[in-house]
Amino acid sequence: MASARALGGAIPTSRTTYIGKGRGRGRGAAAGDGSPRQPGSQAGSAGTDQRQLLGVAGILELLETAPPSTNAESLAEQVFKEAEASINTGDEVTKFAHSLYKWTLQAPDRAKNAAIACNAVGQLERDNIKFRSPFLQTLKKDYDSRNEWKDVEETRWVSLACLVCQFYKEFRVAGNYVGALESPALTCIEMLLSTSSIKCHVYGVEQLCDLGPILYPKNSEKIDEMMDDLRRRLLASDTLSSSRVLFLEALEFYAGGWEMDETAVDYYTNKKAGI
Question: How many CA within 13 A on the CB side of residue 98?
């Protein structure tokens, strides 16, 4: 897993490419990681838009309530403006990083918006502390120790795996994907798919379909082996019907060159609705 230093620098489809259709955003209160300032409170310079002074809790609420159709660039811009206006010290940068990380690992569906947010504020710096440093240090610690706790904290583990994958997708250095995150992302997908857990299969297939077009050119042999394993498990007598639907979706997407027409997307969306 890349260190914070290795990940330094600048931060980040025709027939239908995979968009994770049918998965909802995680729900739950964002409060508890900081309190938004109330209307009329005196914070920041005179004339500053008070909506930009929501603090950590307000940023988490913004991420929590953003609908799936939200444009990533628009969301990133909003997060950056909120953070730039309301985070003023190095301690607040660290608190924001830890709060966002803790919030993200409470539900796998939060990973995408969290990665967009981190991409937006990765260079945010106060008192010589950059946001990306404490965030990535905590991420690396959990990733390195995952085998010690993933079996007893499934939701947290699946959330971490999705976050690693979405980090790889969203982060850019000089316009390129961060190579140090490629292997961890592929490892997370493989680990999710190799279990017998339906929850792991749901998110493993989601991340595979989302990142497949990016990962495949440099990892074709590894992914081909992964898909061969899914074929074997698809036909195995002990494979649950729910997992068969998920595996079939991944295989069809892979066979179609990481593309799927709208009819197929709608079919699998409906089939997965009850999973």
Answer: 9
The whole-angstrom separation of Cα 162 and Cα 206 is 9
Sole residue written with tokens 């945010």? 124
- Can you tell me whether residue 172 is helix, strand or coil? coil
Give pLDDT tens digits along the chain (275 positions). Answer: 444 333 333 333 333 444 444 444 333 434 334 333 333 333 343 344 444 456 899 999 999 999 888 899 999 999 999 999 999 999 999 999 999 999 999 999 999 999 999 999 988 999 999 999 999 999 999 999 999 999 999 999 999 999 999 999 998 877 788 889 999 999 999 999 999 999 999 999 999 999 999 999 999 999 999 999 999 999 999 999 999 999 999 999 999 999 999 999 999 999 998 88
Instruction: Record the pTM.
Output: 0.80
- Helix axis angle, 182-193 to 154-170, nearest 10°: 140
The label of the residue with tokens 């749901």 reads: 202
CA–CA separation, 176 and 61 (whole Å): 30
- Amino acid identity at 185: A
Phi, psi of 242 (to 5 degrees): -65, -40
Distance of CA 46 to the CA centre of its chain: 36
Give yes or no for a contact between 178 and 7, defined as CB atoms under 8 angstroms apart.
yes
